[in-house]
Specification:
It is a single chain. By secondary structure, the protein is α/β, with parallel strands linked by helices. It folds into 2 domains: 238 residues, 3-Layer(aba) Sandwich (glycerate kinase, domain 1); 199 residues, 3-Layer(aba) Sandwich (Rossmann fold). It is 38% helix and 21% strand. The chain is built from 17 helices and 17 strands. It has a 6-stranded parallel beta sheet, sandwiched between helices. Strands 12-13-17-14-15-16 form a 6-stranded mixed beta sheet, with helices on both faces. Strand 7, helix 4 and strand 8 form a beta-alpha-beta unit. Helix 15 packs antiparallel against helix 16. It is globular. The two termini are 20 Å apart.
């Protein structure tokens, strides 16, 4: 049963996560970066400013989990302008001028937009597709409409392209000789094998007419402005949604290496495998029109992490941000669970645990500043919060319900329970890896509470209604056998739903944004009054 301290930390973690998500609100991100001044559109990001003349010549397209809200922000900015004409009494008149040549066309995932807002329906055409993040006929229909708009552009036009996470599956247009179903099957095989977003998009680049700068080429000779809400931890434009407005330099040979390394090459549809293995490099595309294309990242995972850390600093004494945490969800869960256990012992004053804790953090993250900050917080009995921007992967072997964040959280819960009980017995495939070092003090902690929240900023984690889950230093007690079985079957959702009244599941509903995942790790001395 969770302690009152755990309940307090659970509420705080939810609050910190929510602030991080709100910081990457798509519409707010657009309004911060884009301004209209007279007959010009000004875009400012990363200290640079770009200006585009407005002559009722703007077309807007978008694809991704966040683009419907981004589009609302853009059409509001473009919808009116101040007229210099004076009225009969000398006052300035605000005359409505629509700089758009047509309604914005956006491709969004099924279930993302739940509204009957007439304003949205009148100004933005929405296509719903890519159920479970897999390309389908609905997404293909949207892709053809976006292609028609791009090809109709002339030199006087400005094509604004709105891009966010999930956009790649929403813009499917396979190369000649490959069907949409074959491309979809390829994507599914890669995802199930644990491919990360970089690997997925590298392969999809070469199976698509749109990706790797294809959309920007189709729109020539128009000016192209892309506003991007990044779901990629290092903000690589050629990876986000497949880089439809960014040049890329990968080859089919790279795709073959990826598929081979993941063990899926023999399982690929025949047409896909033959295309990727064909001799010679891919057909050389038309030269990329760099001088006519501007890509601007207006929000990212770093934005969310920084906002979450700021919120955490209002409640805890020491905070630490971490950008770009990647790896297998089970391995990361083991890392976090062991961290919680060792910190519990260190807070209790076990000197040898401080050294173990330092070494454990260094072994995985190799961050001396972080390891030192954690150890000092334990020594000084200070509350601590670690916020990481993360993108774990899961190698799906079972048939259960869950997602990468829930799998990670359950693995952490199993690890902290096992470590605190002093038992490192192997329990099937879900047992601790042999590399886990023994603890010098395995007694349960009674003086400190730790809690981990792992969740997706889009409000979605796998085919469930949850976006993530929490693990805490109270552990999962007598439920270890069931937890281990759920890990093997990738069924973390069922475990969390059936234990603790579901309080450790995080259910927010679709947030309308997507900048990958946030991990919030909190440590609080039980006698502290900080919370």
């Amino acid at each position: 049963m969770a302690s009152s301290s755990t309940t307090c930390l659970r509420n705080l973690a939810r609050s910190i996560f929510q602030v991080g998500v709100e910081a990457v609100s798509p519409r707010s991100a657009v309004e911060r970066a884009v301004k209209r001044v007279s007959n010009s559109l000004l875009v400012e990001t990363d200290g640079q400013q770009y200006e585009f003349p407005l002559q009722e010549n703007v077309k807007v397209v978008g694809f991704g989990k966040a683009v419907h809200s981004m589009a609302l922000g853009v059409v509001d900015i473009l919808g009116t302008r101040e007229s210099r004409t004076s009225g009969g009494l000398g006052e300035n008149i605000v005359a409505p001028v629509n700089h758009l040549t047509h309604a914005a066309v956006c491709s969004v995932p099924h279930g993302i937009v739940r509204t009957n807002n007439q304003l949205l329906e009148d100004r933005i055409v929405l296509h719903h597709g890519a159920r479970h993040n897999l390309p389908d006929a609905s997404a293909a229909s949207a892709a053809w409409e976006i292609r028609d708009i791009a090809e109709a552009c002339d030199r006087s036009d400005l094509l604004i392209v709105l891009i966010s996470g999930g956009g790649s599956a929403l813009l499917p247009m396979p190369v000649d000789g490959i069907t949409l179903e074959e491309k979809r099957r390829t994507t599914q095989l890669l995802a199930q094998a644990g491919a990360d977003i970089t690997q997925l998009n590298t392969v999809r680049h070469h199976l698509s007419q749109f990706k790797a700068g294809g959309l920007a080429r189709l729109a020539q000779p128009a000016q192209v402005l892309s506003l991007v809400l990044s779901d990629v931890l290092d903000d690589r434009l050629d990876i986000i949604a497949g880089g439809p407005t960014c040049n890329a330099d990968t080859t089919r040979e790279d795709c073959v290496k990826i598929c081979s390394s993941l063990g899926v090459l023999p399982q690929l549809p025949r047409a896909v495998r033959e295309f990727l293995e064909s001799t010679g490099s891919s057909a050389t595309p038309e030269q990329f029109p760099s001088s006519r294309v501007t890509n601007c990242i207006i929000g990212s995972n770093r934005t969310a992490v920084d906002a979450a850390v700021t919120e955490a600093s209002r409640h805890v004494q020491v905070t630490f941000p971490y950008y770009g945490l990647i790896g297998d969800a089970d391995e990361l869960g083991c890392f976090y669970g062991r961290w919680m256990h060792l910190a519990s012992a260190a807070y209790r004053g076990c000197g040898s645990s401080l050294a173990e804790l330092y070494q454990w953090i260094m072994s995985r993250l190799d961050d001396e500043d972080l390891a030192t900050a954690v150890v000092e917080a334990c020594q000084q009995q200070k509350s601590f919060c670690f916020v990481a921007g993360a993108e774990p992967t899961v190698n799906v072997r079972g048939t259960g319900l869950g997602g990468r964040s829930q799998q990670l959280a359950l693995r952490a819960a199993v690890e902290v329970t096992t470590a605190s009980s002093g038992s490192h017995r192997r329990q099937g495939k879900a047992a601790l890896p042999p590399s886990s070092p023994p603890s010098s003090d395995s007694r349960a902690c009674s003086d400190m509470t730790a809690l981990l929240l792992a969740a997706g900023t889009d409000g979605i984690d796998g085919p469930t209604d949850a976006c993530g889950a929490m693990a805490h230093s109270d552990g999962i007690g007598a439920s270890m056998k069931e937890a281990a079985a759920c890990l093997v079957d990738n069924d973390a959702y069922s475990f969390f739903k059936n234990h603790g009244s579901g309080k450790d599941l995080l259910v927010t509903g679709a947030t309308g944004t997507n900048v990958s995942d946030l991990h919030v790790l909190l440590f609080q001395h039980k006698h502290s009054s900080e919370l």
